[in-house]
Design brief:
4-stranded mixed beta sheet, alpha+beta, 161 residues, single chain, 7 helices, globular
Amino acid sequence: MEANGPEVLRFMREALRLAVESARSGNGGPFAALVVKDGEIVGRGCNGVTGANDPTAHAEIEAIRDACRRLGTFRLNDCDIYCSSEPCPMCLGAIYWARLERVYYSNDREIAAEAGFDDAFIYDEISRPVGRRVLPTRHLTLTGADEAFAVWKALADRVEY
């Protein structure tokens, strides 16, 4: 699809409309996302963090979950995602794991930060060595800790991610 073609703009306008709806709902923040496959919306999500008491209930995560349920797969490699705002680090990770083809977003992280949604500290933390992060994190080395990986590698019928 052409980056600023009519279909792309139509889907982005719908994501932005849903974001306004989400902001008005009081169920979460002013964010929404759509997953689109072959010109059809196959997943929708609005931020539901406060309503669900779930810090992972971001719009992108909800849209990915909805699309995966509807399509019966965890791979969305033939799909695009339209986000009302630039995805946060968690959502970006989920987008990569879902193997989405393209990401379209409207509001950037600076606009989100001005509204109180500032992810800069997370981007900073990710770039620091584990031992220098604000959140105390320790690597514990235990004998046999890698057993689950050995079992996984030995499975003949495993489904690769």
